[in-house]
Amino acid sequence: PRGGAFAAVDLGASSGRVMLVTVGADRLDLREVHRFPNRPVRMGPTLYWDIPGLYRGVLDGLREAGRITGGRLAGVGIDSWAVDHGLLDADGALLGNPVHYRDARMEGTAEKVAAVLPPDRLYAATGLQHLPFNTIYQLTAARGGAAWSAVRRVMLIPDLIAYWLTGEAGTELTNASTTQLIDPRTRDWSREVTDALDIDPGLFPPLRRPGDPAGQLLPHVLAETGLTGPVPVIAVGSHDTASAVVGVPVDAEGTGRRFGYIATGTWSLAGLELTEPVLTEESRRANFTNELGVDGTVRYLRNIMGLWLLQECLRTWEAEDGAAPDLSELLAAAGRAEPLRSVVDAGDESLIAPGDMPARIAEACRRGGEPAPRERAETVRCVLDSLALAHRRALADAGRLAGHDIDVVHVVGGGARNELLCRLTAEACGLPVVAGPAEAAALGNALVQARATGVVTGGLAELRALLRSGLPLRHHEPRGGTEPWRRAEERLHG
Ligand code: ADP
Ligand code: LRH
After folding, report:
1. Which atom of ligand 1 is the closest one to the Cα of 240?
2. Atom of ligand 2 nearest to the CA of 269
3. Which of 62, 201, 211, 241 would be a feasible disulfide site paired with 452, CB 3.0-4.6 Å?
């Protein structure tokens, strides 16, 4: 029977993982072979990604995958968080560690960009939600730096990893769409934007689409990982959210239902899969994004702060206690805490930077006239209630702005493991929630590789059909009515 073992490299803001996904014509098996923490590092004033550490994690994972398969892999695909990139010189060498999107250097750059390209024109051209760290702002900040004169290439994180693995350079389209330099109608660089900002799109290597070949593992990579060549690297939806949406097990529960999705990890990305972008002024004001997806789709969604709020609380408490708090105990206590006692706006930009999150949440509560949490369980409850409320609002707004009803909500990503969050999301939205898979991005990554190598055929529906068997999905029916959520929303947003 035809089949293949694919390595899906999925680099998230909180951890990187290499998954071994075995795909056959009508089956799929997922095995985590390596997971490593992604720990940013501050050097001097700047917050960086530890890119050598991440690349080492990728090599370790590929070696481990090969140990299981006897050195053979049918393909390797790489996806990661969006917007960030490395700057390369004329020799193809990296000019410093990639800067983290949570670094403070973008302060003031949005105003500089707006001065040459007003926000309404920028949105009409790119359809991208304003986030202070979009690549467009990062490049504007980098241009003021001393290294800029040596920059010959800009490579997004998954493309950079693929470049080191293969020696070949490309820019994968789904992730390129998060630069805010792409026109979602032509699915190519927006000349209007690159001209206005005087950014040469030629700095980015040529565009690739998911499924395109991206080279083969170099001989020294084969030697280092113990793999047997040739091993093709395949462009996938290299924006992790693009791959995660491929990994949404749509129709697992009966056909024809219109779905909304929430990809929850460090961020919560809540919205719809569309065939055309929505570029209206109303959409811009509602801060909706049109990111490009696999097979010509558009991810129409709002980017919400996500479990970063919880991760950063845990980091603060760990520093206080000298030991990591027990997450399942905290979640159980949060489940018993008073519902909707206080909520904050999960889009609040004051929560983006690293630092004392419990204190900032308390401050955000006070600013909004909400009672500040009195203990950790209340802080966690506030975070989860606030996220569920933001999910409700994003899906309702997406449905209204795109003229698209939603019958079922799929929650994928690490947050699908958080039962309380899924239950609260079902309640808040007043819709059934199907939770899982937690590793949707790795699955979507592998499915696109499997199709590119001819192991499976068909469109997204056929790829997703493979997800239906054997995945542990959890169901949460809406209970309790949405009225308390409507009132909380009114408190927060008027
Ligand atoms: P990213 O890809 O952005 O690094 P993930 O999709 O891996 O994020 O999700 C990580 C988050 O998932 C964690 O911060 C945590 O909040 C949540 N999570 C993972 N496992 C569990 C679990 N067993 N119970 C509750 N939450 C979990
Ligand atoms: C999620 C994600 C999200 C981006 C953010 C920077 O991992 O890719 O879609 O907005 O990271």
Report:
1. 2
2. 9
3. 211
Tokens of 434: 């199907």
**What interface predicted TM-score (ipTM) does this complex get?**
0.99
Cα–Cα distance for residue pair 101/118, rounded to 1 Å: 22
Share of the chain above pLDDT 90, in %: 94
Pick from 114, 151, 158: which is nearest to 136 by CA? 114
Q: How large is the angle between the packed helices 357-367 and 376-402, nearest 10 degrees?
A: 60
Identify the helix (H) or strand (E) that includes residue 75.
strand 75-80
Place of tokens 């949005």: 110
Provide the token pair at 103.
């670094």
Q: How confident is the model at residue 251 (pLDDT cuts 50, 70, 90)?
A: confident
Distance from C-alpha of 300 to C-alpha of 401, rounded to nearest angstrom: 10
The radius of gyration of the chain from alpha carbons, rounded to an integer in Å, stands at: 22
Tokens of 132: 């202070």
Instruction: With H, G, I as helix, E, B as strand and everything else as coil, classify residue 305.
Output: coil
Return the ligand number nearest the Cα of 239: 2
Nearest residue by C-alpha to atom 21 in ligand 1: 417
The answer to pTM > 0.90 is: yes
pLDDT for 472 equals: 84
Q: Give dist(CA 209, CA 292) in Å, integer.
A: 10
How far apart, in Å, do the first and last CA atoms of the chain sit? Answer: 59
